[in-house]
Structures are given as C-alpha cells and as structure tokens.
Amino acid sequence: xxxxxxAVVTGSNKGIGFSIVRALCQQFPGHVYLTARDxxxxxxxxxxxxxxxxxxxxxxxxxxxxQSIRALRVFLKEKYGGLDVLINNAGIAFKVNDTTPFAVxxxxxxxxxxxxxxxxxxxxxxxxxxxxxxxxxxxxxSQSALGKCSxxxxxxxxxxxxxxxxxxxxxxxxxxxxxxxxxxKKGWPNTAYGVSKIxxxxxxxxxxxxxxxxxxxxxxxxxxxxxxxxxxDMAGPKAPKSPDEGAVTPVYLALLPSNADGPHxxxxxxxxxxxx
Length: 276
Ligand code: NAP
Fold this sequence. Notes:
Layout: E1 6-9, H1 15-27, E2 31-36, H2 39-51, E3 57-60, H3 66-80, E4 83-88, H4 102-124, E5 128-137, H5 140-147, H6 151-158, H7 164-179, H8 192-214, E6 221-226, H9 243-246, H10 248-254, E7 267-269, E8 272-274
Parallel strand pairs: 1-2, 1-4, 2-3, 4-5, 5-6, 6-7
Antiparallel strand pairs: 7-8
The chain binds NADP nicotinamide-adenine-dinucleotide phosphate.
C-alpha cells in the first residue's frame, strides 16, 4: 500500500475533526483515517459518514497515551510506509464556569492540547512523506493569550530561535506556577486553554523551522491554524460557524497543492496568514 496516499485526523469522532474527515473523504485522493480515543464513538462516527456514501477508515488513537500513538505509528509504517497528511485536531477545554481548581485545569489542558499534540508530532513527523502536509489546530485564543503574557514571555514565544526543549520547559513551568498560584505574578495569562494553544502555535513554528533545516528538499508544509468560532460540544450552540465551515481552513492547509511553497510555519485563520 506504500503508493496509496493516507491522511490521519486526530480527535475526529465529532466536532470539527469529524467535518475535516468528511471533507477529506470528498477531496483527498487516498485513504482517510477517522481516529478516536474511544473505539465505540469512532465506529459510530464512521457509520454516519458511510450513510453519506463516504468511506473513511478507522484507527484508535488517544493522544494522551504514548502506547496508542506508537501503535498507530507502527500501523502506518507497515501498511503505508508513512503518511501524507496529518491533522492534529484533538483538544479539550474546560467550560468558562467550570469550578475545577485552576491548577488542575492547567495540568489537564496542557497534558492533551500541548504535550499530547507534541507526542504525536514526535512519533509521526518522521513518517511524513515528501510533499506531506501537517496541520496543528490551534486557536485565535493563542494570539489573545500571547498579548496577555509579560513582555519577557512574549519575546520568548515570538522568538525565531526558541527550541522545542525550551518551549517544553516554559509549558512545564506554567503548570508548576499554576499549582503554586503564582502564574499571574510570573507573567502568565489566567487561561490554561490559551497557554496550551500558545504552545501549539509556537511548536508549529519550531517544527517548520526544523523541517527547513533537516528536510529542505522534501517540500513538507506544516502550519498552525484557527478554525474560527464553531458550534461544537466545546464551543457551544451560539458560535457562528457550522463544523463543516470550521473545517475549511484546516482542510485548505491539508490540501495545499504539491507546487505550493507556502504557507509554512505560519498561524493561519480564514485561509489567511496572521501576524504572530
Ligand atoms: P469537540 O467537539 O469537543 O471535539 C474534540 C475532539 O477531540 C473529540 O473527538 C474528542 O474525543 C477529541 N479528544 C479529546 N481528547 C482527546 C485525546 N486525548 N485523544 C484523542 N482525542 C481526543 O471540540 P471541537 O470544537 O471540534 O475542537 C476541535 C479542535 O479545534 C480543538 O483542538 C479545539 O481546541 C480547536 N478549536 C475549536 C474552536 C471552536 O470554536 N469549536 C475554536 C478554536 C479552536 P471524545 O469525543 O472522546 O472526547
């Protein structure tokens, strides 16, 4: 199957991820994998798309579980010799009125949105084939949260030389500062989701730089994006966009044509590169 193209979407049993799979099934010339941490919810979602005449494949994937990520890596390597499109969409957010202590929200949110996404990238990016496309679903909230960071933190997050290790250290420090209730005193914004998405956007900038350095001739394009404010279980019924509309920018980045030389290493919203 190494000549069959393959796309993987994380957290795609519902919401924006589900709509991304739907659009890829319609537009991507290859196998599309709907993944879910819960196989029951995943198979149910596959069935829904089959009823629409679409044919996604399914693989279990919990981005919080390294064994689950590695099982997917082995599967992709053995069956397809790698992968062509990776969309890191899985994410969580506590509701605004959730009374869970901030320290817990910080740890749990960062665990999935930043560390889980990073673990996927560590395991799967080496498998991405030439002309591959990688999309990390971040949020405009990453930009607004960046604006609320101290000047020193902003400088670090905007740096063109920050390393992945340095970013991991900063994200770890945020969780530790939150546990000691000193995060605001240390210049962090009071939003765990916002900091986790700063992590996703900055990680994408670093990964794109690494691809430039190590795999220049492979023409891989990697970006972070915001889907917009979308009606899903996460964002609620008042959001203006449908999940299919929320899928538009991630799918645009996933299907950038083979002769495109950008965007790459950018934060993209409404198909438009944003200033970071
Ligand atoms: P959603 O409806 O809550 O869907 C989130 C998906 O992620 C679900 O399939 C969920 O699976 C999955 N997920 C969560 N933790 C996971 C894990 N550890 N491993 C694998 N899958 C996991 O949310 P959404 O609105 O579609 O959000 C999708 C992405 O867009 C997120 O990254 C979110 O931060 C981002 N985003 C959303 C909006 C918005 O307005 N909706 C705006 C900006 C950015 P379960 O069903 O098992 O929980």
